[in-house]
Each structure stands twice: as C-alpha cells, then as structure tokens.
Automatic annotation (TrEMBL):
Protein's name in the database: CRISPR-associated helicase Cas3
Family: In the N-terminal section; belongs to the CRISPR-associated nuclease Cas3-HD family.
Encoding gene, per UniProt annotation: cas3
Origin superkingdom: Bacteria
Keywords, sorted A to Z: Antiviral defense, ATP-binding, Helicase, Hydrolase, Metal-binding, Nuclease, Nucleotide-binding
PANTHER family per the UniProt record, alphabetical: CRISPR-ASSOCIATED ENDONUCLEASE_HELICASE CAS3 (PTHR47963:SF9), DEAD-BOX ATP-DEPENDENT RNA HELICASE 47, MITOCHONDRIAL (PTHR47963)
InterPro entries membership: Cas3-like_dom, CRISPR-assoc_Cas3_HD, CRISPR-assoc_Cas3_HD_sf, DEAD/DEAH_box_helicase_dom, DEAD_box_RNA_helicases, Helicase_ATP-bd, Helicase_Cas3_CRISPR-ass_core, P-loop_NTPase
CDD domains to which the protein is assigned, alphabetical: Cas3''_I
Domain HD Cas3-type: 54-240
One Pfam family named in its UniProt record: Cas3-like_C_2
Length: 806
C-alpha cells in the first residue's frame, strides 16, 4: 500500500484562484485607505505568490523522507567540516526514519489515504514519532552507522521519539499492542521485509520521557548536547522541507566572504583604515573573544570581520538597536543575505516590501527557520535551549556550526546574563564560537564565567582596548534632588538637551513642568518632546525616528525627555545630558548618548547627574548604592574614557559583591540551569520565563473609538477563511500598531482601568466557528499624542478618559 506523509491539499483551478482573489480584494478594500504603500505592496506580493503557487498534490511518505535526506546531505556538503562522520550519519539516518511511524493504519485513515481500504473506527492514535522510535534495533542502526555505541543508540531513538512535542503517556506494552494491531503489517510492507520487528523495549532505553509520571534522571550536559544536535538538525531539515524549501540554508558566505569584502571596499572608498580593535578581531577569527572598547571604535565592523563569512547570529538587547544594525549591514555594506529576528521583525519586513519581493510572511518564516548566513536578533530568540525544552534543540544544533556575537552584555538583567553565560558554555562545548563585544565588562562577569566553565586564555581570549583610550567626551557634575528645570531650559536655548528619567511617571511630570513654563510665555519656547515605552507602537516609531533626525540636525536645539529606552537602543548624539542617577552600567550607557562622537572636548560639565530618592524598586539597591558612593571620584572634572571602565570595575568588584543580592541572583540562576531536567519546561513556558512576560497588551480607549470601524473591519478580515496567513498577519499588525504593553504586578489582577474582556469583531458573518483573538484589552487611561507636532504625554497612569467601554 502506498503511504502518504500528510493530508491531500485541494488543487485549485485558475477560476477558483481568481474567485478567492476577488473575495480577498473585496474585504481588503474596506481598510485600503489606511494601508501604507509598503503594506499594499506586501499584500500584492502575497497575492502574486498565491497565483503562481503550483500545488504538489499529496506527497508520498517515501518521497517526503527522501527530500529530507537530500536536504541534510546538501547541508553537510557545505557545513560538513563542523561535524564528525558519525554525527552526520546519525542525523541522516534520523531523517530517514523519523516519520516511518506514519505508515500505521490510523494515521493513513486520518489523512484520507484511499488505499487504506478501512471503514474501521479508531478510538485513539499513538503519535507517529513514538512508533518510528520502536521501528529500529541497535544492530540495524549499527549496520548503518559505524562505531555506533549503545549510548549513541539511546540518543538516536530519543531524538526520533521526541521530534514532535506530543502527549507522552504510553508505555512499551501499550505501544507494542497498538503496533501489532495497526502498524506492523504496514511497516513490513513498506520495507518489503516480512521479518521486520517492533522493538517496543526501545521505550525503556529513552534518555527521558515528556510526562509528569515518569522519573527523569538528569542526563549529563555532553549527552544532552549530542541529543540536541541530532534532534535539532532533524527538526531543521524537516521544517525546511515541510515549508516547501529544498535547502536548509538560504546561502553560504563561507567561501566568498561577500560581507567582509564589502566592508573592506567601504573603508577603502571612504579612505578609512582598520583600527586596533578591528585588526585584533581580524587576526583572531578562530578564537572565542571578549573585547572591551569605548563607543565609537567600530566594534560592529570588528565583530562582522571576526565572523569572516561563517554563519553568524548578531545579538543585541533591544529591537530598535537590532533594526539599526540590520539596516547598517544591508544598506551601508550592501549585504542582502541578512535577516532580522525578533517579535517585531514581521512588521519590519512589511515596511521594507518592494514589488516583486518574496512576501513579508515568507521572509519572516525563513528567518524563524534560522536559514540565513547572518541573523540580527534579540538574545531570547536563540538562547531558549538553556531550558532544555522540547522544540528548542534546533537553536543549540544551529549554533554548533555558527558564530555568536553578544553586543553590550551589561545591558541585561541578572537572569538573562546567567542564561547567556550558561548558553555560551554549551555553544563552546558543541563547537560553536562566540565574541562578546562591549563598552564595559564588569569583573564579576568574568568571575562567574570562570566559575561555570568559561576560563580566560583557555575557553576565550580577553582584550581591553579601553585602558589606552585617553579621549575626553564628558565632564560630570552631581547634585541631589530633582532635575533642575531652569538649567534644562537655559541649556536648550542653543543646544540639543537630552533628559533621561528613571520612570515614565517622572518623565511625564518633568515634561508637564517645562511645557507649562513655555505655555505661560515667561521664557522663549524651544522644541520639546517626550519619549517612553507607553506610547502606542506607531507613535513610538514616529518619536524614535524624530529623535534620531533631531540628533543628526546640526541646526536643531531643544529638549527631549526620555527614559531608559534610549540608553542603548538608539544611535543619538546630544550636546548636553541631564539624568537621574542610576546604576553605573546604566549611567555609562546614558553618557554614550551625549557627545557620542567626540565632536568637542568639554570645558565645563556637559553631563548633569541628579541623585534622587525612592528608586530601590527600579535598581538593585547594592549596585545603586556603590554606584552613588564611587561616583564622587569622577565628578567636577573631565572624565577620561578609560576611567569609565575603572568606575564600573570598582562598582562590580567581585570580592565586594559576593554577599549581595545581585551576585546571588546570577549565581542562583546559573545553578538552576545546571539542575534543569530535560523537558521540565515547555517551549511556551520558556518564552514566558526568558522574556519575563508579565504584561498585558492594551489599546487606549480614545484610540479605539477613533478607529472603531477600521478595527472592526480588520477583525472581520482576520476571521475570514479566504484570507491567507501572510495577509492576515499584515492586517493583525495594523491593530497591533495601536497598542502598547503595560506591566502586570499582580498575576491575578489586571492593571487599574484596564478592561478584563479582549476586543472582538462586532460583525455577525464570521467564517470561523471561533474568532481569532488578539488578546488586546481596552483601557480608559488618558492617552495623549499630537501627530502633527509629535508631542504628548502618552498613556497616563491615573488619569481616566470620560468614556465607557462598549
């Protein structure tokens, strides 16, 4: 009997396609006037892809497995140097066998195989991966993979067994009974081998189970790494072929080194020479590195030269900074084989859509498949594997043959720092490489890396370029109390003034004070704007674009009041900085937004620091206190660049921090990673744990009421069965653009003035039985933004609008 890999998809005639397109266009017409040119282009590209798609028909299981094996073999032709012969053989055999379990009668009947000739009703189905894992013996695998040990066999069958995350509740006797009833005959027929047997005892050889009743003994890291390699690459090749692609990697830059050549050409064209950091990283491309260098020394270019055309992940702390690096690589260095991976990258692909391009949705899917030679991303997108959840092995497996760049490690909280340290150790052990490039590298991090297996001059090389930096860009002064409004206004008469507050509330209050003074007419008004995270997404983008444009305009003068979001996410350069005191790492990031490019040598204070009260809930109190106490040694005079590293090193001195909560939190997180059992976390739990997702998505009530018909039309489109996934995602992004995230401090209660219900379409003619929910809540909090002036306070904490939920 011919067996198939999945259900048949209906092949559409040209007339049927045209009919669907007409229906798509008719519903899209309802929102046409609010779509941008790039969004319209993205929808057109999606429709063109739909028109030109040729249905393959139902794929046989044999063909599906052959395509995955070919995908793996083609991959190893390019990246085989990173793997042993045994590793390659085990992965290929896993690709060959992982879906064999689909030949069982229950599955074939479910997908509509007409050859099954069975009217039998089935009460249950055991997942095909579990059946595949009992379809091979140790001797059979040994005949295919030379030097295969019992340990290799256990790793192999575990990878096959868990290649999907399924309910794992069947024991060997139950699997044996199911196989004898529904599977064995078809398996013999598939292999044309009457002697083929079921090895149900393989279930007892699995490294671990994915259920609450089994006792999983924690396996050693080196065993998990071997398992993750097979499981991760199996998933990678399976996902690639199932998504309709032939190659697991979009392209390889290993031999041509196009990006490196383009950087060389750019430097030559602009009469630029490589500096010491760039030369150092060029000469150490085969080493793991930790490189410390001041802002403006070209760390990005140095890191890209170090990558040397190998597959690479460039990680940053923030989406905005990721977007900037992505643009820089793509446009400044004219390198096309780069992608962007974070929660907002789909919208970014929509915004840069050009007619004839691959659809934004497909570009995003390729990005999620980790298939580009260079990916610019947020750390949480690729370090999920530290939790050893099913479905995260693909990240560890991919990083084995990649280089990872960690930019500005000091910007992360203690839990993420612990995840990075633990993850880098696994990457290094598996054969991957890493480079940490940063303006500051606290000694405590070096100590923790050593404690958990990453030892200087053994596992990585450390180089500090800040000690020779004698540049003076800043002159600090210090005061206690609130930021001096009069000084800010005076400075803004002929300078670009940046103000950074520790909270949104204090930023809004300061904005109100200065705005009221200007509004009174007592002083000459200058430009004033406010930027923080409680603006809806589309308004925040406008503000971010404006602050960068303002920063680059030599003739501009005025005030931008902001929060921590500008510390490392935006490439801006102001003349003067007024800031509330923070921890030293945060403070030094803030300094990098003032006189960033050393445009002048200060002869008086250009950074004014205000030590405020009641900030224990914002920063670690020990680190904050040490930062304040030591700050006095660096104020009242010019600050030489190398002294910044000295300052942070004194604050983060390991010996002084061992008994603090900061040190203990990182150490505790690292110990937790060491103790985590495989499959202890689900992938969804990892997302929540890693991103510390304690927030709710809201739309301000006045924004909702202004756009109520548009939102309703969008929701109708999202729920229309004719709308393709990529077009649906574009429309969903239009609603998402009107939202922002609010933190949740009580897991059982939404923030004040937030509706408990989520927004839904008011329409009755919904094609889906269940509406697609976007999990967006309405809020009655006051929201203020003037698009024309690019001014407003954003979402207020206490003030409510005079409206009710409808």
């Amino acid at each position: 009997m011919e067996c198939y890999a999945k259900s048949a998809t209906k092949s559409l005639s040209d007339n049927e396609k045209n009919e669907i397109i007409e229906k798509i266009n008719s519903v899209i017409e309802e929102v046409q006037d609010k779509l941008t040119l790039s969004e319209k282009t993205a929808i057109d590209n999606s429709i063109n892809e739909f028109i030109n798609t040729t249905e393959k028909g139902q794929v046989t299981l044999k063909q599906h497995l052959e395509e995955i094996v070919i995908c793996a073999e083609n991959f190893f032709e390019i990246y085989g140097r990173y793997f042993t012969e045994k590793e390659k053989s085990l992965v290929i055999e896993a690709c060959r066998i992982h879906d064999i379990g689909k030949v069982n009668r229950v599955f074939q009947a479910k997908i509509g195989n007409r050859n099954s000739n069975s009217d039998e009703k089935f009460n249950y189905e055991i997942p095909h991966g579990y059946l595949s894992a009992v379809s091979i013996s140790k001797d059979e695998l040994s005949s295919l993979v030379p030097d295969c040990t019992l340990e290799d066999f256990k790793i192999f069958i575990t990878a096959v067994y868990h290649h999907h995350d399924r309910e794992d509740k069947w024991e060997s006797a139950e699997i044996k009974q199911y196989c004898n009833k529904y599977y064995l005959d078809n398996l013999k027929d598939y292999y044309k081998n009457e002697n083929k047997k079921i090895m149900s005892a393989n279930v007892n050889k699995l490294l671990f189970r994915n259920n609450k009743t089994s006792v999983n003994l924690r396996i050693k890291n080196e065993i998990w790494e071997k398992y993750a390699l097979i499981k991760g690459l199996l998933n990678k090749f399976d996902y690639t072929v199932s998504s309709g692609y032939e190659e697991a990697e979009v392209a390889s830059d290993i031999d041509d080194k196009i990006l490196v050549k383009n950087i060389y050409e750019y430097f030559k064209l602009h009469n630029m020479k490589f500096n010491s950091i760039q030369i150092y990283m060029k000469n150490n491309i085969n080493k793991n590195l930790v490189v410390v260098a001041p802002t403006g020394m070209g760390k990005t270019e140095a890191a890209l030269i170090w990558a040397d055309g190998e597959k690479c992940f460039y990680t940053l702390p923030y989406m905005v900074s990721s977007n900037a690096i992505y643009d820089r690589i793509k446009r400044t260095y004219n390198y096309g084989n780069v992608t962007l991976l974070h929660s907002g990258s789909m919208q970014y692909f929509i915004d840069e859509s050009k007619r004839g391009d691959e659809s934004a949705y497909n570009a995003y899917q390729r990005s999620k498949l980790l298939s580009f030679p260079l990916t610019v991303c947020i750390v949480d997108q690729i370090f999920k594997f530290v939790y050893k959840a099913l479905g995260t092995e693909i990240f560890a497996a991919t990083l084995k043959y990649s280089k990872v760049i960690i930019d500005e490690i000091q910007s992360y909280n203690s839990e993420i720092i612990a995840a990075i340290i633990y993850g880098l150790k696994i990457i290094s052990d598996m054969g991957g490489h890493f480079a940490i490039i940063t303006a500051t590298f606290p000694p405590v991090l070096k100590s923790l890396m050593e404690k958990y297996g990453l030892i200087e001059n053994v596992d990585y090389e450390y180089k500090d370029f800040s000690t020779s930096a004698g540049i003076v860009r800043h002159w600090l002064d210090e005061d206690y109390g609130d930021i001096d409004v009069d000084k800010v206004i005076k400075s803004a008469k002929n300078k670009k003034v940046l103000v950074i507050c520790n909270t949104i509330g204090s930023a809004q209050k300061l904005y109100e004070k200065i705005y009221d003074i200007y509004d009174s007419g007592l002083v000459e008004e200058t430009e004033i704007h406010l930027l923080h995270s409680h603006f809806i997404k589309c308004h925040r983008r406008i503000l971010e674009e404006n602050i960068m444009r303002f920063s680059k305009d030599e003739l501009s003068a005025g005030i931008w009041i902001t929060t921590q979001i500008v510390e490392a996410s935006l490439d801006i350069d102001f003349d003067v900085l007024y800031t509330e005191m923070s921890t030293v790492d945060s403070l030094l990031q803030r300094l990098g937004r003032c006189n960033r490019h050393a445009r002048y040598i200060p002869t008086e204070a250009n950074v004014h620091i205000y030590v405020t009260k009641n900030i224990d809930y914002i920063y670690d109190k020990d680190i904050y206190k040490r930062s304040v106490d030591i700050l006095k040694d660096y104020t009242g005079r010019p600050l030489v660049e190398r002294e910044k590293n000295e300052y942070i090193n004194r604050v983060y001195c390991t010996e002084d921090l061992i008994d603090t909560a900061y040190y203990k939190n990182i150490e505790s997180a690292l110990e937790n990673f060491k103790k985590i059992n495989q499959a202890e976390y689900s992938k969804a739990e990892v997302d929540k744990q890693f991103r510390d997702i304690n927030s709710v998505t809201v739309i301000p009530d006045n924004i909702y009421n202004q756009n109520i018909d548009f939102i309703d039309n969008c929701l109708n489109i999202i729920n229309n069965r004719y709308i393709k996934k990529d077009i649906r995602s574009i429309i969903m992004s239009k609603i998402s653009d009107m939202t922002l995230s609010l933190p949740i401090y009580n897991r059982y209660k939404l923030p004040e003035l937030v509706d408990e219900c989520v927004i839904k379409t008011r329409g009755k003619d919904i094609d889906y039985i269940k509406q697609v929910e976007m999990n967006i809540h309405r809020t009655r909090r006051m929201y203020e933004f003037d698009m024309e002036k690019c001014m407003g306070r954003g979402l207020m904490k206490k003030e409510a609008q005079n409206s009710i939920f409808i």
